[in-house]
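fold-stage: in
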Amino acid sequence: MPGVAGPDREIRGYGPNPPKIRWENDAKVAINIVINYEEGSEMTFAMGDGVNDGMYELPFNVDEQRDLAKESMYEYGSRAGIWRLFRTFDRYDIPITVFGAAVALERNPEVAKKIIERGDELVGHGYRWIDHYHYTREEERDLIEMAMDSFDKLGLKPEGWYCREMSTNTRELLVADGRFLYDSDYYGEDLPYWTFIDGKSHLVVPYSLVVNDCRYIMGTGFAAPSDFVEIAKRTVQQLLDDGDDCGRMMSIGLHPRITGNPARTHGLAEFIAWAKEQEGVVFMRRNDIAKKFIEQVPRPETPEDRPNR
């Protein structure tokens, strides 16, 4: 619509003929586990924000002052939960992607060291865990630059980006910046796809909030770890036999302050052990999914060169 900021909507997608992608080891389903590492960068009175952030175990709020209970629940993720998750990934020898907020990693650099040691992928998750749509284009550009400078000092080189909530300027800023292979600020696909921004091709590697542990605490899904395991298994089973011969990707979104709690980690481990036994399934980092896709669906020169669009 003329005069409306932001990218065009892309409703049609691949339609009935998506590309027949295969992943590492000729797998049909690529599972990407994402750790959203935000603890210590969230909005708090302690950091001068005048508000206490959400995504909290109980729907209680302390207004107009610090909420020490809520702060401590976030700190569970950085003190205990993240390390329980890393031990689980080490035990099952699987790669992951970390959506990391720069300030969270600055305040707990041992986590950054562990990401590097394991060979995991960092995706830029903002300078802080904040909604980018609150900021002007110039402010958002500065926030992206501050985040990338911070990651560089920690020895991390993100190839991807995922905001808490993107703005209508985010994707244009990422393309203009030139350092990003892809972004994941999109929920509308089970496969990466090419889009065009200011005449330049740009890769989108979609994310999902369906197999996501926010459903433990937001009243829309998981009452017990068995609920998480059930929906995760059924997602894999459907993608393995989705009515065609096309491969697809699956995103699992986790937070150390949520799934880092023991019972939920136990459910995650149950699913990982099961998935590793399934033929045609592989765990991959998000940047590796992007590169494997590009091998099979090369960067298009024009919008008309895109497959089945």
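fold-stage: in (second)
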Amino acid sequence: MRPLKLVAVSAGLSRPSSTRLLADRLAEAARRRLAEERAVEVSVVELRDLATDIANNLVTGFPAAALREAIERVTEADGVIAVTPIFTASYSGLFKSFFDVIDNTALVAKPVLIAATGGTARHSLALEHALRPMFVYLRALVVPTAVYAASEDWGTGGNSHDDGLAARIARAAGELADLMARRPAVTDTVVPFEQQLAALRP
């Protein structure tokens, strides 16, 4: 049985980026949960590095090699973590453009964890009014817990009224891992063409 493939998509624009940091923490938490039962391959797609290719693809309809490879990784993944900074109360244009160039059937029934970063907690509802509807439209299986990290969340442990960022990461990653683990297993077995033809004969 092949390893599960987990891909984190980060739309952070700066280096270092809190968006990438959140993507990494979510991916590592999900990997640890899944590794108890299955081998896991984790990779990250940095949209910052693909910005020009994404813009060109929107105009020409043809992806460059690097963008094509990133699209294939997301399309073939068993689970996706999608993280964007929040600009003007919604996802970034780069984030939306990347998912615009992916075939709109590529995420059907695929487990997706949505997350976002921002300067203030006031933008946390963007996860529910912008990101979740987009992935529901694409017919992905969006995990119940969405993770938002405001500037003040980094380094806090939470209190009786707030789970804290670490707890939210653990809960969301666990939900994603559970969905990925329940997906039908895909093996790399190839059925010879002659055998396929024989199965069609009456």
